[in-house]
Amino acid sequence: QMPSSTDSTGAADPAEPHIVGIQTPDQQAALAHHNPARPVFVEGPFSLWLRNKCVYYHILRADLLPPEEREVEEIPEEWNLYYPMQLHLDYGRSGWDDYEFDVHKVEEGPVFAICMAGAHDQATLAKWIQGLQETNPALAQIPVVFRLAGSTGELLAPSSGLEEPSPPPPEGQEEEE
């Protein structure tokens, strides 16, 4: 983001909306192969803490394909000779080893891009989508649905220097001195 030419101080207005997006070449390829009959979704804002600052981001994603429509990528047999895709190591286990793990596999649809924006409204995020269409022409043919959360309010803890007054005692009970 560059400051406007009318800004004499050389600093950008912090209230001015900004959009910072990221998309890998693999995400671009996945979006190019996405079925235009299936919509993509702009979701968020999701919070992320960076040190003591809470920032919010949005994602462009699609729903998971039904199992019958998924394509399983076949790995050529010759790749397995030089670059094994799976590794099976049989280590001996002792009686103290825990064989059960609490792992819950959750399948989600693909994420095509991520952005952080100064404003969390649909108009700002629509500009992000327009910018994505420059490098992803297929996105112009895909319906985009906005699923935006209503609030990005942070929970604020009372400052440590100020103590809240204690609540009054219940009626019928007197304070002991």
Automatic annotation (TrEMBL):
A GO CC term assigned to this protein in UniProt: mitochondrion
Record region (Disordered): 155-177
List, for all copies, the residue spans of the domain called ECSIT C-terminal. 24-149
* Bias-annotated ranges (Low complexity): 155-164
Record's InterPro entries?
ECIST_C, ECSIT
How would you summarize the oligomeric state and partners of this protein?
A: Interacts with MAP3K1, SMAD4 and TRAF6. Interacts with SMAD1 only after BMP4-treatment. Part of the mitochondrial complex I assembly/MCIA complex that comprises at least the core subunits TMEM126B, NDUFAF1, ECSIT and ACAD9 and complement subunits such as COA1 and TMEM186. Interacts with NDUFAF1. Interacts with ACAD9. Interacts with TRIM59. Interacts with TMEM70 and TMEM242. Interacts (when ubiquitinated) with NF-kappa-B subunits RELA and NFKB1. Interacts with RIGI, IFIT1 and MAVS; these interactions promote RLR-mediated type I IFN induction.
Task of the protein: Adapter protein that plays a role in different signaling pathways including TLRs and IL-1 pathways or innate antiviral induction signaling. Plays a role in the activation of NF-kappa-B by forming a signal complex with TRAF6 and TAK1/MAP3K7 to activate TAK1/MAP3K7 leading to activation of IKKs. Once ubiquitinated, interacts with the dissociated RELA and NFKB1 proteins and translocates to the nucleus where it induces NF-kappa-B-dependent gene expression.
Recorded protein name is ECSIT homolog (Drosophila)
Q: Which species is this record about?
A: Neovison vison
Organism classification: Eukaryota, Metazoa, Chordata, Craniata, Vertebrata
